[in-house]
Structure formats: C-alpha cells, structure tokens
Hints:
Number of strands: 5
Helix content: 10-25%
Protein name: DUF951 domain-containing protein
Strand order of the largest sheet: 4-3-2-1-5
Number of helices: 1
Structural class: mainly beta
Largest sheet: 5 strands, antiparallel
Strand content: 35-45%
Amino acid sequence: MQAKSFELNDVVEMKKQHPCGTNAWKIIRLGADIRIKCQGCGHSVMIPRRDFEKKMKKVLMRATEE
C-alpha cells in the first residue's frame, strides 16, 4: 500500500462528510496527532495520524498552489 503524502495547509477530502455539509478539511497541525479544520463551518478536530491516514481520501489543493 502506498503512503499518502500531505503537508501543512493542504486541503484534503475525508471519506465521511462533516455534519455542516462539506467534505473539505485544511490541515493546520502535523505531528503524531493531526489537527484539521472544516472549510465549511470552521470546526477543528484533532485525530491520531494513523486514523487520519485511513480516513483521508485525497488531497484537493496543495499548500504550494495557493
């Protein structure tokens, strides 16, 4: 299985949609735990890296593209 690549400030798509209706999340902290912020309502969640890698679908926008 190929490792997923993501960096700080990337916007990613998760497998499950947030209750506010959006599926886009911005990575705002990297480490053993990863903090992501909902692009729709601004709610932030911190989840373990292992869980994040399982739940992430793809990178929608790279930080370098902004």
